[in-house]
């Protein structure tokens, strides 16, 4: 009996490891901007990326509510503490929490309903760096882009140094934040949607802004594609 129990446990462990390897996702984070960015990921931490550098990030299957973004104009000391002009995450090089607006976001949840990955680019927290978020394996051909000149064209009400804020962080009203789930587009969310039609512009903007790939797909996030 002990032999069969041991055999079962070994088989179960092998199956668990196999499924983990199959469904784990790699995110290749690249900086094509003509300036340095400090890439950030939750989960994942953070890394300085000079022009042309990349950061391969492995993400566990089942991860959800995850984000990747760029921080700009950062200064960190040897202990990894400092501050960024946009996208700052509590003054830490290795992010442990989401960044401060404005920041262009790549968002994802892996191996969810029917073992699908759900991916999107969001401008709900504003825009700081042009971005492309795409799948690179698994027969999935999703390419989401937000590359408009939003910082230069930003409405005066949303303009901040280094970026264009989202209306919710600025106005903090139900109309713009949609905390109760009852809201529609505003003139400010339309500003973002007109320039990046595949990106989230306000919280209820699901129909045209969220995309799926099979679980186990690998991805690429490019700043300034």
UniProtKB/TrEMBL annotation:
Residues in the signal sequence: 1-24
Disulfide bonds: 33-224, 74-84, 89-95, 146-196, 154-164, 168-177, 178-183
Cross-referenced InterPro entries: Osmotin/thaumatin-like_sf, Thaumatin, Thaumatin_CS
Pfam families registered for this protein in UniProt: Thaumatin
Source taxon at top rank: Eukaryota
Keywords: Disulfide bond, Signal
Single biological process term from Gene Ontology: defense response
CDD domains the record matches: TLP-P
PROSITE patterns for this protein: THAUMATIN_1, THAUMATIN_2
Family statement: Belongs to the thaumatin family.
Protein name in UniProt: Thaumatin-like protein
